[in-house]
Each structure stands twice: as C-alpha cells, then as structure tokens.
Amino acid sequence: MKKAALIFIMTLILALQSNAATVSGGVSKVDMNNANRVVDAVTNAPIGNARVSLPKYNYSTYTDDYGTFNLGKVKGPTIMSVEKEGYRPFSLTINDTIAARPIVLGIQKSNISDVVIASDVFHLGDDNYSEASSGADTFRLRSSGPYFSKTFMLKPESLSSNNYLVIGSIIGVDTLMARSMGQNKIVNSYASPPEIFFNGAKIAEIQLNGDNQKIRIPNNLIRSGQQNEITIKAGRNLMQTAYVDYDDIEIANLSIVSE
Ligand SMILES: [Ca+2]
C-alpha cells in the first residue's frame, strides 16, 4: 500500500510538471505554475466551484473558473477532501512538504452505480491517543465511538459487477505494520487493525494508513435491491491490558464502487 501511495505521489509530481504551462484567458491571467488546481482526471479540464476542505483546520474554499484554489498553512499530516457534484468524492493525505508545492488533483466523474456512504471526515476511537500516533496531530473531530455503521441500498445490477468499498483516506492506524513502515513514532506499543464488516461478515483489516484503499466485497454477501450494512470497528492498543484503549483513527470519504 505504501508503494501504491508513492506511485500516486510520483504521478502527482509528474502531473505538476506536465501541467506547468501558463494559460491565459478571459480578463485575468492565472499562473498555472504556482497554482493548486482541481481538474477532470480524464479530460484534464479545470473544474470550477469544487469544494476543497481541510477538516483539521476547519478550512474550506471553492475552486475558481480555472480550477485553482488556495490552501492555508498546513502542519503535519492532514486530510484534504474535494467535493464536486457529479464527481466521486476525493481525498488525499497531505503534509507541509506536499502543501508547499502546487498540487494538481485529478478527480473522476461518478458512475451511476456509485454509492457514497460518507463524504465527510469522521473519528473513531475514544479520544485517548499518543502524540506519537500516526494521526495525532490531525485529530480535531470528537470521537463518535469505536464503531461506525451505516446502511445503504445496492441496486439489483450490483451482482453482475465487482464491488469495492473505497476508503478515501485513513490516518491514525497504529498497527505493528504501520509502525514498521515508519507511519508513526510510537515505541512501546501497537494496536490491532481496524476491522471492516459487510452485512456482519468480516471482509478486511486495515493495516496501513493511506489514500484510496479498495476492499473487494464478496458478491455472495451482497443483498441486491435491499439494504446492506458496512461497519468499521476501531482497533485496540494491544499493550494496554488494564482497560480498553481503542486506536483512534480518522476516515474520509467512504463509497461503494462497482466495476
Ligand atoms: Ca485511544
């Protein structure tokens, strides 16, 4: 997953270079070299009036007609999310280094079969976490408890496709694997991974932080044309036996994508 994230960041940097042309049009001239922009991932056309937000800073703004937007100061890892009618909700974990350079974000048109489960950022856990946690600096939202659960309809046609749960961004996962990958600075402990359940059956464990994690939903678990349920359960600090200490995490953008 880390490799995928690196490739994604490389793509982002290449995208920056290939888009580094100054475009003039209308009355104002926009310096595309130095602008953060939201574009259509397929056509590369600028997308105006997209909402870009940093929930940690309670910051949100809209792109202009050139797709450009300003980001305030960013410190440490934080989730940035982009919303635009007709497009899949998009999120990206950024930090000071990424925010210091122009960011070009390609977003994808939504498909009629996409189901958005949550388009905002939510916090799972108990609000008790170490400063060294991989998301500690980012947590702002109060915990809604150790579980997230939501029901939603899936169309009858979903059974003729492959279906995936897509987690836009996740931070704060402090598993042994996350620690060994350098995603946090915790020395003495680690946590069990968050678990994902679909209609009561466990379909995945999340070992690492990152963006756009895709989890296959086995078709035999799907109730087509009916209500289905996704549940995410926070992991637990495995070195704390005196009481239950849930591993605090934040998640942005959950959707079901059929392909
Ligand atoms: Ca905790």
Walkthrough of the structure:
- The chain is mostly beta strands and 259 residues long.
- It folds into 2 domains: 106 residues, Carboxypeptidase-like, regulatory domain (Immunoglobulin-like); 144 residues, Jelly Rolls.
- It contains 3 helices and 17 strands.
- The strands form 5 sheets. A 4-stranded antiparallel beta sheet has the order 5-4-7-8. It has a 4-stranded antiparallel beta sheet with strand order 10-17-12-15, with no helix packed on it. It has a 4-stranded antiparallel beta sheet with strand order 11-16-13-14, with no helix packed on it.
- A hairpin with a 4-residue loop joins strand 1 and strand 2.
- The longest helix has 17 residues.
- The protein starts with a helix and ends with a strand.
- The site of calcium ion has 8 residues, from loops.
Q: Which molecules are bound in this entry? A: calcium ion
Task: Please tell me how large the radius of gyration is.
Answer: 19 Å
Order of helices and strands: HEEEEEEEEHEEEEHEEEEE
| Count of individual domains | 2
Low-confidence stretches: 10-29
- Count all strands and give the number: 17
Please state the overall shape, judged from the principal axes of the Cα atoms: flat
Assign the structural class, choosing from mainly alpha, mainly beta, alpha/beta, alpha+beta, or little secondary structure.
mainly beta
The oligomerization state is single chain
Helix content: 10-25%
User: What is the annotated CATH architecture of the largest domain?
Assistant: Sandwich
Which band does the percent of strand residues land in?
Answer: 35-45%
Our count of helices gives 3
Mean pLDDT: 85
| CATH domain topology of the largest domain | Jelly Rolls
Cα separation of the termini:
21 Å
- Summarize the main sheet: 4 strands, antiparallel
The main sheet orders its strands as: 5-4-7-8
For the record, the CATH class of the largest domain is: Mainly Beta
